């Protein structure tokens, strides 16, 4: 019985040993793989740490650069603001200086104009007498009164400076300002009325000119070349329409072919007028009598005619 039991025990031990050896080899392989994985993981982690460190360094560097750039831009803005304010002050100073110079120049020209007007208050013409005692006015400009265009312009500016008064509102209270506004409104109303009157007068004169020109044109159309005393108007170019563009066109009621010209002479017209002005003779009354009255009268008239 013992021999039969020991026979199968040896293969079982060998199988167990083989399984244990395989298990040991597997464990060693797993340990080796784990060690390799840990080594690889350490390398990757070190690499990631290095990359993170580089990123942190770059971020810190960007922060420093951004701070430097912000500081530089702030300095530039401050310098630009200071420069702009300085230029604004210089421009205001130049403007005030130029305004002061113009004011002084206007005042100087006004004084010169006043002095010139005071010195030149005398007539610029001479009255000469004829041999028969009549008077003739011959305007002769003196040399000191012959002014250039610049002098006339200066006089114009001086007169405008005298007429246009400055609006002084310093020291006025509410009542004074209200009264000043009322005065200005009344003056403006008066000027607007004068402007309206002048415009209306200009329109009436323009209409009269158009009417007179149209009458002259219609008179010359019928006369043609026979009239030597008529007004000659160039029909090729309408000067009136070119001058008064806003004027309405002429309304032609009838055709020009319906107009007839009277070609009779003055004597024929006078004779016709005298014939119409002569008194007409009274109408002849013929009486017809009864019986032989009319016959006797006819016989008597016939005998008288025969005698």
TrEMBL record:
Ranges of Basic and acidic residues composition bias in the record: 13-22, 38-66, 72-115, 129-150
- Give residue spans, biased composition: Acidic residues: 297-307
Checking Pfam families in the record gives:
Troponin
Any single GO CC term annotated in Swiss-Prot or TrEMBL for this entry: troponin complex
Q: Name one GO biological process term.
A: regulation of muscle contraction
Coiled-coil intervals in this record? none
Question: Which residue ranges does the record annotate as region Disordered?
Answer: 1-22, 38-115, 128-150, 275-307
Report the GO molecular function annotations.
tropomyosin binding
Q: Which InterPro entries match?
A: Stathmin_fam, TNNT, Troponin, Troponin_sf
Q: Which family does it belong to?
A: Belongs to the troponin T family.
Q: What is this protein called?
A: Troponin T, fast skeletal muscle
